[in-house]
Specification:
Elements lengths: L3 E8 L5 E8 L8 E6 L4 E8 L1
Length: about 50
């Protein structure tokens, strides 16, 4: 059975958690980083995976 868990995506500028996503931890071991819109910064910023 695949180990798919929920992860939090945090804005790299204001450090607020804005998004939640799913990730298969067996296939992708490294931390996820996506370009997403932050409603607090009001612009697109890199969002990094947190614990």
């Amino acid at each position: 059975m695949a180990q798919v868990n929920m992860i939090k995506l945090e804005c790299s500028e204001c450090k607020r958690v804005n998004y939640f996503s799913r990730k298969n931890k067996r296939t992708s071991k490294d931390r996820l980083q996506l370009q997403k819109y932050c409603k607090y910064c009001k612009k697109h910023t890199p969002h990094k995976e947190t614990k």
